[in-house]
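Before relying on records like the one below, remember that each one covers exactly one chain. Contacts with other chains, cofactors or solvent are not represented anywhere in the record.
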Amino acid sequence: MNDPLYLFGLVPSATAVTPAGAGVDGVYPLERLELGNLTAIVSAVSRREFVGPEAEERLQDLAWVGPRALRHQTVIRDLMDQGPVVPVRFATLFSDAEALRTRIARHQATLLAFLERTRDQAEWSVKALYDRKSALARITERILAERETELAALAPGRRYFEEQKLHKAVESELNTALAETCRRLYERLGETATDACEVRLQAKEQSGLALDMAANWAFLIARPALEIFRQTVDELSGEGNPGGLQLRMSGPWPPYNFSPRLDES
């Protein structure tokens, strides 16, 4: 049985150049697979290493995934430097070239339209960050001050019950305020973007950031609009929004969050 094909991404055939170096495992070479007006950048991978129960376990092992994911990203970035690209998620495999051809043929019109639409554009990440512990403390302090006389008049047991209700109210107030602030920020930033979407929030352990994440967005930005977008992010960050959320912008990234899904029929 042949080794499977590992797909990195798709580019227009007219401008396709195979990136230098080996594939995701550092062993098999990168190759081009012509698919009409599209070119797939692929490499073979070891079936034993990438397929089966043991492979599923490896995909949970950061020490194994890390260098391969980095190589995957490097290839995609090299493709992105040449022009528009449909980036494919890490560890996307096909049994052989014919299986890949069949899948791409099903989506060819959508993929070509995406490449044309995203020409001279890139994905940029914006995260809205804050210190949740401090924010909760500020709201709690304000509400306790407002209700100090009322709470002082209560019996200890009753006061404890009311303070527990108060803590729930504080959480609710903060969440409501954050949602409204993030909605306004998202709308304002989206005015400069070709497209935008919300991305899954990350805990501090995942993001590596010192602050909590109130929102995580991806924006598709055309090159001529980038400077205006960057200025808008700076203006809206911190004192530029009611919640004092810090906006962190990073990129450019391949447009993963806007790419067509190849696993859809």
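The two ends are 26 Å apart (CA to CA).
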